User: What shape does this take?
Amino acid sequence: MAYTVSELAELAGVSVRALHHYDRIGLLVPTRRSRSGYRLYGDEEMRRLQQILLFRELDFPLGEIRRILERPGYDPAEALEAHRGILREKGERIARLQDLLDRTIAQMRGETDMLSDKELYEGFSEERIEAMKEEARRRWGRDRVDASHRKIAALGKEAFARIKAAGEALEAEFAAAFRAGEAPGSERTQKACRGWEAHIGNFYQPDPDILEGLGRMYAEPGAFRDRYEAFAPGLADYLKEALAIYAGTRRAE
Assistant: This one.
């Protein structure tokens, strides 16, 4: 059976934009076209997309996924076995984190102790924590970033949890707008950008140049891009464009 790009997007839970992007970079190229010129995806492309999505779930960059899939001697069955083991370990780790959070909340509700780096970045590996901090320091300077971390740590657990949840909700809204095909300059996406400006304001005051710079940082190869690409392939570049548009609007006000 053959699927059009919109049919495959709905079936696989990805955006049409993402499938077009995969086509452009040679990661998932449909081998057939309909009489009307529409892309058609067959069984082989379906299996390849499954592999791509599994690798994305494990935070592999798109370029690396393409190199793996096109490597001589690549065995999809062996790859699936490896995926299964990694996902099992990941599930066990998440279960441990959930248990730790439940016990911590039960024991420490209402306390306002300083937060550690691990608490600030719950769910990230130590390597990812350091990578994100170093990327921010490289772009904004060590003093500014470290001062921001001290401010975050001083918030206390309850306040930080509320701010973190609000930030995650905004990230989910960006991803939802992206998957829905909203343009970066659409009212919905720009409203999310306004929310993001307010969210960042909890840590330091962002001017338009900083907001645009954040967008560039999110899109550059590294820990931030990996984070947003894990939400939806193509989201990092979408955020870069959306924040650039928003920054331009703020400058004109």
